[in-house]
Write a structure and sequence with these properties.
Elements lengths: L8 E7 L9 H16 L4 E6 L6 H6 L1 E10 L8 E5 L26 H12 L4 E8 L11 H20 L1
Parallel strand pairs: 1-2, 1-3, 3-5
Antiparallel strand pairs: 4-5
Length: 168
């Protein structure tokens, strides 16, 4: 998608189910970017939309210079999206089984964002930058329709993605 072979590029991973209301916001944002880039014939980053983070994604992370994960979140404290930096070397164990490894518990079906980055570091020596864009979500009915509150948050989410891409 316009990225030079072998080049270390940025990676955006959108997490969520596009058929569960606000949970599909990440896939929606990535689809918008893909359409913009296709029209301009310039891809700024690799895009991957997934329902959940799995260990197999560590290889894609390891090939990237920087990674932005985009996810819907339930947050009663704010209606505004925000970005938090993730440090793969500071991932905390989520259970005693993960103690001492610094990557939390490794299930076969789902990982936390920081755990995915830590796994890329552990397996592939990845030392890139990681961040998580959290988009407040409010309704999760069956279907692709967003809640009015999420619709109001979309412009800020778009701005944050573009800002992150511009930092590269």
């Amino acid at each position: 998608m316009g990225v030079e072979a072998g080049a270390r590029r940025d990676l955006l991973i959108g997490i969520g189910n596009p058929l569960r209301g606000d949970d599909g916001v990440a896939a929606f944002l990535l689809e918008e970017l893909a359409e913009e880039w296709q029209a301009g014939r310039t891809a700024v980053a690799e895009l991957q939309a997934v329902h959940q983070l799995t260990p197999e994604l560590a290889a894609a992370v390891a090939g990237a210079r920087r990674v932005l994960l985009v996810d819907a979140c339930v947050s009663p404290q704010t209606v505004e999206p925000w970005i938090e930096r993730l440090d793969p070397l500071e991932a905390k164990p989520a259970s005693a089984a993960g103690a001492g490894r610094g990557i939390g518990s490794l299930g076969s079906h789902q990982l936390a964002p920081a755990t995915l980055l830590a796994l890329a570091n552990l397996l592939f020596g990845w030392r890139g930058e990681g961040a998580l864009l959290r988009v407040p979500a409010f309704a999760f009915p069956h279907g692709p329709r967003f809640s009015p509150s999420l619709e109001r948050a979309l412009p800020r989410a778009r701005d944050l993605v573009r800002q992150w891409l511009g930092e590269g």
